[in-house]
Amino acid sequence: MMKHKIIVNHWEEICEDDSCYEYGTSIIVNGKELIREASIISALKAVLEEIGADAEIEETVESEKCCDSIRKKNLDY
């Protein structure tokens, strides 16, 4: 069985004139960058697809009162 090398790379970029600042997390599998701005779900999906794993991802929250910011943030995947 092949052992895959997975890199979770946190990056930041500042424009030369300091007018902008960007940051994110990229996912690299076996030397290939799969996604530049990864959420947890998009990172998992990209890695599993790249290595050919058949998986179903289900995201839940422990209670209705929990995690509104997470729910709103992850609606874009």
Class computed from helices, strands and strand pairing:
alpha+beta
Mean pLDDT rating? 86
Binned strand content: 25-35%
Poorly predicted tracts of residues: none
Reported for the largest beta sheet, the result is: 3 strands, antiparallel
Work out the helicity level. 10-25%
State the order of secondary-structure elements, H for helix, E for strand. EEEHH
Number of helices: 2
Widest beta sheet: strand line-up: 1-2-3
How large, in whole angstroms, is the Cα Rg? Answer: 16 Å
Number of strands: 3
Topology:
Layout: E1 6-14, E2 21-29, E3 32-35, H1 40-51, H2 68-73
Antiparallel strand pairs: 1-2, 2-3
At a glance:
The chain has 77 residues and is an alpha+beta fold. Helices cover 23% and strands 29% of the residues. Strands 1-2-3 form a 3-stranded antiparallel sheet, with helices on one face.
